[in-house]
Each structure stands twice: as C-alpha cells, then as structure tokens.
Amino acid sequence: MSGAADPRKVALVTGGAKRLGFEFAKALAKSGYSIALSYRSDAEEARRAVDFLRKEEGVRAEAFRADFAADGAPIRLFEEIFSSPLFRSSSSSSSSAASGLPRRLDALVHAASPWIPKPFASVTPSDWEAVFSAGPRAAFFLAQAFAPELARSSGSILLVSDVAATQAWPSHVPHAVAKAAINALVRNLAAALGPNVRVNAIAPGVVLPPADMSPAAVATLVGKTPLKRRVAVADLGAMAIAILENRSMTGQVVAVDAGRSIV
C-alpha cells in the first residue's frame, strides 16, 4: 500500500509513542499518512517516535501531549493539532517534513489505554477512573471533537478493543468492562456519525505482552489459541489499514487474535 495513498492524508494516533499505538502509527506512515500522535507523559519517548516516523518512514509527524484524565483534553488536542506546524504553510506543495499540509484529518486511531492488572478485591476507584477516562470516555469526546474534520474528508475512526471485551478476566475487570464499552461505542458512533464518518474497532489478541508478563505466562496464553502463535504486528497493522480504508464498513469490531476469542 505504501506510496499509493494520497500524500496529503493525515492520521491522529492516540498513545502513538509506544507499544501498539506506535505500531499503528508506523503502519499508517508506511501507507503514506502524515502522523499526529498523542502521548501522556514521556516527551522523550514521543520525540523518538516522531524522529523515527520522519527519518525511517519519510512522513510528516508531530507529537502532542494529552492527558485524557483531564476534562477537555480532546478539544485541547484538536486545537493544538490544527494550530501546529503540521498544517502551517499549507500552500506549499513540497514533500519535505517542514512543509505544512492542508487542514484535514482522514483517520483517528484511539490506542491510548492504561494497563492496570489487579485482583478484584484490590481495584480502587482511581484505577477504575484511569481506565475509563483514557478509554471509552476519551474515545467519545475525541470523536465529538474531530468528527467535523473527519466528515469533510469522509474519514474513519478506529478504536482499539480487546478480546477481553467478550470474556471474563477477573484480574482485569476495569479493563474488560472498558473494552466492552468501546464495542458499544463503535455501534453507537457509527450510527451517529454516518454517512460521512465510518467507525470500527480492532480487537487484538497476544501481540506485545506486558513487560512484566513472564515468558511462561505468554506461552500459556499462546498455547490456548487455535493458531498456537502470537499475533504478528504486521498482520495487525495491515488489518488496521484495511478497516480504516474500507468505505463499505462501519459499526464492526474485528478480532485479530489468532483465534483466541473463540476458545
């Protein structure tokens, strides 16, 4: 797909400086999108991600800090992105990263999501709020803030769900419930924002396990899948692009999980 996409296309990837968010950003960059990525706290990590996208993928890229626990964060992110160097000097047709783009947004990928594994009895209100504020609450208000720009480009929203949304994970209850809310949001936003904005979700399986998960625990999870392997990052990225660019698809949650959700 790389090189075939409209070179003016722009994507926002929340949580785009690390882990799956960064992998989605790289997949979009390979497909020709310029990238706005948000990060919560690690400015150095975000700078490295932007440098990689500019130097290795050859696209325009900028990083923006956004803490979705704060009220109004999505609309502030909107304002900062569209007043940034990414969109300045938009009359220039040069392909250099220093040149601005026409004001537009073609794709919104909401990948930001805290991971707080805790037994049921140990979950606190702050744990619950952290997961929901960065997850379904942020997803809704990001859609609300960016929908007008997405509608102008007949764009697409991709939310990141999880197989946990349809399974019982007693040591990850806030996470599982938040992802179930994401699935409900997909259906409701698809109906609310059609026909000009498409809304879907991708539900990964074992892709990039948490750093504190032991190899034995990872092997146990993988062993339970019909395909007996982890999900390849390339497969997940390819499906994300396919969903974002499929103009006949909305309101769907697609599992890319080596079959984990069926067992």
Explain what the structure shows.
- The chain has one domain: Rossmann fold (3-Layer(aba) Sandwich).
- Helix 2 links the parallel strand 2 and strand 3.
- Strands 3-2-1-4-5-6-7 form a seven-stranded parallel β-sheet, with helices on both faces.
- Helix 1 crosses helix 7, helix 3 runs parallel beside helix 4 and helix 4 packs parallel to helix 5.
- With 263 residues, the chain is of the alpha/beta class.
- The two termini are 33 Å apart.
Give descriptors for this structure.
alpha/beta; seven-stranded parallel sheet; 40% helix; 7 helices; 7 strands; 263 residues; 14% strand; Rossmann fold
Provide a quick synopsis of the model.
40% of the residues lie in helices and 14% in strands.
* N/C terminus separation: 33 Å
| Strand order across the largest sheet | 3-2-1-4-5-6-7
CATH topology: Rossmann fold
The tally of helices reads 7
Please state the average pLDDT score.
89
- Give the CATH class: Alpha Beta
Helix content: 40-55%
Integer-rounded radius of gyration:
18 Å
Counted up, domains total 1
Q: Can you name the CATH architecture?
A: 3-Layer(aba) Sandwich
What's the number of extended β-strand segments? Answer: 7
Q: What characterizes the major β-sheet? A: 7 strands, parallel
Percent range for β-strand residues: 5-15%
Secondary-structure-based class equals alpha/beta
CATH superfamily: NAD(P)-binding Rossmann-like Domain
Unreliably modeled segments: 89-98
How does the overall form come out from the CA principal axes?
globular
Give the SSE order as H and E letters. Answer: EHEHEHEHEHEHHE
